[in-house]
Amino acid sequence: MSRVNRSVRLQADGRHVLIILLLVTISLGAQARRIVSIIPATTEMLFAMGAGDRVIAVGSYDHFPPEALKRPKVGALLDPNVEQILQLHPDLVVVYGTQTELKRRLDRAHIAYFDYENKGLADITGTIRSLGLRIGEPRGANALAARVEAELADVRRRVANARRPKTLLVFERERRSLRNMFASGGEGFLHDMIEAAGGADVFADVHRQSVMMSTEMALDRAPEVIIELRYSADDIDDADINAWNVLSTVPAVKNHRIVVLAGEEFVVPGPRVGLATRKLAAALHPELRW
Distance of CA 43 to CAs 32, 60, 84, 105, 186, Å? Predict the structure, then answer.
């Protein structure tokens, strides 16, 4: 066989392999008609990409969109109800990377699963696209991912020339006190959101997603803005916010720049992350037009 003929044959074989792989992918995706998702982020993704009608069960903490509330609850990240999941006869279960035991049980039951992890902001749109391809919904997934990316790009553009205030983002603490505080570290989607929103994370040098912090650490890091995240507006009261007054020398406290943002979109790394980042940017940069 001549070198030219061999090249043509190899190219043709390559196309055949690609076609076969695409057919297998489409076939696998088309089979995913009964999906269980127990992670709030992926539940939101599935509904937002137009596959909500295929979701037959969700997690205990899956509250959005409202249609998800009509689905059976089958546990959550740390306590999935495996027996209930198996009884539903799903053809695909969305699992998180750390759910080793759940994956083992699904393997034994010969039930397919989509395994993922989110380590940063960019992983969110990557997961949207991968999940969409897996269930045979690439068009809806790509459109959703592109929308989120455009929202984040718009926020970054708006804050590009603004001064970046030193920002402390607290996502958990004991109410009406400054005990048991957890803040965003220098990794993860919360850190990436701070940076995208035009803030300078005071724990950027701590290579963890979360930091269990003390009042001494707050004094040392001297944030200019303190952002607190809450699941609901009902979880906010003046006595709780006034707990920060004991740190009167911290610039954010001294200058009354403590902002509480309420809503699950801030703590669920899903399709609403662009909206959440915009709200975070508006809190950090009220001088800009939003």
Answer: 14, 11, 18, 21, 27
The answer to whether 76 touches 38, Cβ cutoff 8 Å, is yes
pLDDT at 111: 97
C-beta separation of 239 from 260 below 8 A = no
pLDDT (0 to 100) of residue 290: 87
- Give the closest residue to 19 by CA, choosing from 113, 135, 11, 141: 11
- What is the token pair recorded at 93? 């279960």
- Arithmetic mean of pLDDT, 79-89: 97
Q: Answer for the pair 166, 202: CB distance below 8 angstroms, yes or no.
A: yes
List, in order of start, the domains of the chain with CATH numbers.
Answer: 12-153 (3.40.50.1980), 163-284 (3.40.50.1980)
**Calpha distance 189→204 (Å, rounded):** 12
Arithmetic mean of pLDDT, 217-221: 97
Separation between Cα atoms, residue 244 and residue 207, nearest integer Å: 26
Cα dihedral 45→231→69→125 (10° resolution): 0
Q: Is the dihedral of CA 197, 199, 202, 203 positive or negative?
A: positive
Query: Which 8-state DSSP code applies to residue 263?
Result: S
- Listing DSSP states for 122-166 in one string gives HHHHHHHHHHHHHTT-HHHHHHHHHHHHHHHHHHHHHHTTS---E
Does residue 288 contact residue 162 with C-beta atoms inside 8 Å?
yes
Q: What is the pLDDT of residue 8?
A: 34
- According to DSSP, residue 73 is labeled B
Instruction: Measure the CA angle with vertex 176, ends 174 and 180; round to 5°.
Output: 20
